[in-house]
Amino acid sequence: MDLKNWIRAIPDYPKPGILFRDLTPLWKSPEAFNYTIDCFAEKYLGAPIDAVAGIESRGFMFGVPLALKLGLPFIPIRKENKLPPEVVGVDFELEYGTGRIEMRVDAVVQGDSVLVVDDLLATGGTAEAAAKLIQRVGGQVLAMAFVVELETLNGRDVLKGHEIYSLVTY
């Protein structure tokens, strides 16, 4: 299945000059959505992973079903002030602004190996911040998995040292 058939390009969203990759057609198709989760599961089934972390909010859409399929716990990495204390946070640069993400300090057990999942790799800022959070509380990032990778924004360069797996590249 060619997942590009299920990803819509929306120009000038959320601001002029941005070409937004919309995954709502993929979620609308149970076949395409299930295929996406199966692709990730096939790649990571049997890998030495202790947990799957998803980055709010679209990373949750893929991380939760993947964690269930792999029989692993799910770790939510959320936007600022969305989790009860005690949390650890990191500020980061986005393709079109800045942000802050947080996770609970007890979300990762010391030494846990974590797979980070998100919908899209652009500049790598969000994923890099997620890795910092996981490492800060004693975990290690085994790999990072994305549905879409925007190669021209060089996110892989920011994430050097991490295994990157993308299903679709533009």
Write up what this structure looks like:
The structure is a single chain. The chain has 170 residues and is α/β, with parallel strands linked by helices. Helices cover 29% and strands 36% of the residues. The protein has five helices and nine strands, in the order E-E-H-H-E-H-E-E-E-E-H-E-H-E. It has helices at 24-28, 30-44, 58-70, 125-136, 155-158, and strands at 8-11, 19-22, 51-55, 74-79, 87-94, 97-104, 113-121, 140-149, 163-169.
Assign the structural class, choosing from mainly alpha, mainly beta, alpha/beta, alpha+beta, or little secondary structure.
alpha/beta
Count the beta strands: 9
Task: Flag low-confidence runs.
Answer: none
Percentage of residues assigned to helices? 25-40%
Largest sheet descriptor: 7 strands, mixed
